[in-house]
Amino acid sequence: MNYRVPTGTKDILPAEMYKWQFVEKKIIGVMRRFNYTEIRTPIFEYTDLFKRGIGEATDVVGKEMYTFLDKGEESLTLRPEMTASVIRAFIENNLGEQLPLNKLFYLGPMFRQERPQKGRLRQFHQFGVEAIGSSSPEIDVETMLVALTIYEELGLKNLSFKINSVGCPVCRPDYRKKLVAFLSAVKDQLSVESQKRLETNPMRILDSKSEKDMELTVNAPMMKDHLCAECLTHFDKVKLLLNGVKVKFDVDGKLVRGLDYYTKTAYEIQSENLGSQNALGGGGRYDLLTESLGGKPTPSVGFAAGIERLIIVMEAENLSFGAVPEIDVYVVALGETAAAAAMPYVQAIRKQNMVCEMDYLKRSMKAQMRDANRQKAKFTVILGDNEIAKNECVVKNMGNSEQSSVPLPQLDAYFQNLFAR
Predict the structure, then answer these.
(1) How far apart are CA 276 and CA 317, in angstroms?
(2) Do residues 165 and 266 touch, judged by C-beta distance below 8 A?
(3) Residues facing 128 on adjacent strands
(4) What integer pLDDT is reported at residue 63 of this predicted model?
(5) Which of 7, 208, 331, 348 has the most CB atoms in a 10 Å sphere around its CB?
(6) Which domains does the chain have, with CATH numbers?
(7) Which of 225, 239, 250, 237 is nearest to 171 (CA)?
(8) What is the per-residue pLDDT across 144-172, written as a single tens digit (0 to 9) for each?
C-alpha cells in the first residue's frame, strides 16, 4: 500500500520548521510582554462540550467535527477550536478563584473536516488569547492589540482591521426578528446554505461569501444600528480606545463570528494575500459562555488566529523568518579510530552551547567536507590517525578557507574564545 498523508493535512518538514519556530517565538514573546500565560488543554474533549459551547446550529458542530466513540462508548471530539476547552479548564480548575482576571494564551493544532483550500486545512494550527473575568472595553482592545502587535512585528503589510458589535440577549432577539423578516422576503433567491441558516443562525447570512447573498443583503438591517444602551456604550468606548492608541479600523456591520457564543464586540484582521478566505484571525467577547458550560457568570473576550495563514502571508510578502539554521562546527573524522576519538570533543563543543555535528556514515573526507558545506558549517575540525598521534586537529574556517592546528585538549576552549569574539 502506498501510504500518504491524509487529505487536508500536511507534513511540516525540517527545511521549513525554522519558519514555524521563528513565528512561534515571536508570538510567545509578544504574549509575555502583554502578561498572558500559556495554557495547554487535551487535543480531544467530550463532544457535548463543543455542542454546548459552540452551538449545535453552527457549521463547526453540524458538519466539521471529528467525533468518535472510545472503547468506553464515550463520544469524544478532536478540538475544532480552543475557547470552549479553555473555559472548561477555567471552570474545572477553579481558576477564577485564584485570580480575578485570567489572561491566557495558547498555541496548538485544531481539527475540522472542511474542504481543503489555501490556508485552510483539516488539521490546522492556531494561536490565541482568552481574557476571562473582565467586562471592560479596555480588555477588548488589549486583545486586539496583542494580535495587531504580533502581525506588526512580523512585518505584515496590507492588513485591514474590521470591528462590529453583535449585540447581547437584550437587543439581539428584536433585531433577529427584523433581520428574518427582511431575509424571508428574498428567501428563494438566497443560496441553499443561507436558506438553511435563515432558520438556525440568520446573522451568519450577512457573512456569506456568495456574491448573490452579498447583493441581497446590501440593505439588510445591521445589528450595530439596533444595539441596546449598554451594548452601544460598550461599542462606542471600544472605538474611542482604538482611536486613542492610533489603530485604524473600519466598522463592518456584516462582520459576525461563526460561533454562537459571541456577544458585543466582534473583530477580524484580514489580509489581501489570502484570496476570498482573507481572515488572518478574529475574535470578540463571549460573556455568556462560562455560565452556559456550568460555571459562574464570567465576562470574557479573546481571539484565535491561524499560523498556516500567517506563514502564507509572510512568504507572499517576502518577509524574513530569521536566519536559516546553520552548524557552528562540523567534525570530519577519518577512520574508525578517529570517529571514536571525536565523540568526546563533539560533546565538549556542544556543552559550550554551540551546534556541532560529525559524520556517522563512514564517508570519505571529500564527502564529509561536501556535507559540511551543504549544512553551512562555519568551521570544520579535521581529525585522522595522524592528528590523533600528535594530539591535535586541523580547524578550517569555511568562510575564508584558513586553517589552524589546535591541540585537542584545548579544542572546546578554542571555539569558546573564537565565538565569543
Answers:
(1) 17
(2) yes
(3) 106, 304
(4) 83
(5) 331
(6) 14-171+227-316 (3.30.930.10), 329-420 (3.40.50.800)
(7) 225
(8) 999 999 999 999 998 999 999 999 999 99
| Alpha-carbon distances of 237 from 240, 242, 260, rounded to whole Å | 5, 9, 24
C-alpha 230, offset from chain centre: 33
pLDDT band at 1 (very low <50, low <70, confident <90, very high): confident
Output the CA–CA distances (angstroms, integers) from residue 110 to 4, 31, 116, 121, 314, in the order listed: 20, 20, 14, 10, 21
Q: How confident is the model at residue 114 (pLDDT cuts 50, 70, 90)?
A: confident
Write out pLDDT tens, residues 23-77: 999 999 999 999 999 999 999 999 999 999 888 777 788 789 999 999 999 999 9
| Residue in 395, 414, 384, 421 with CA at minimum distance from that of residue 330 | 395
DSSP 174-209: HHHHHHHHHHHTTGGGS-HHHHHHHHH-GGGGGG--
pLDDT of residue 392: 94
- Answering whether pTM is above 0.85, one says yes
What phi, psi does 317 have (nearest 5°)?
-95, 10
Taking CA atoms, 192 is separated from 118, 149, 205, 260, 355, in Å, by 24, 39, 11, 21, 58
Strand pairing class (279-285; 102-111)? unpaired
Contact in structure between 230 and 130 (CB atoms under 8 Å): no
CA distances from 33 to 37, 134, 142, 333 (A): 10, 19, 12, 46
pLDDT at 398: 96
Pairwise CA distance, residues 60 & 94, whole Å: 28
The yes-or-no verdict on residue 112 having pLDDT over 80 is: yes
Cell triple for 407: 591541540
If you write DSSP's letter for every residue of 58-95 in order, what string do you get? SHIIIII--EEE-TT--EEEE-S-SHHHHHHHHHHTTH
Report yes or no: 52 and 58 within 8 Å, Cβ to Cβ: no
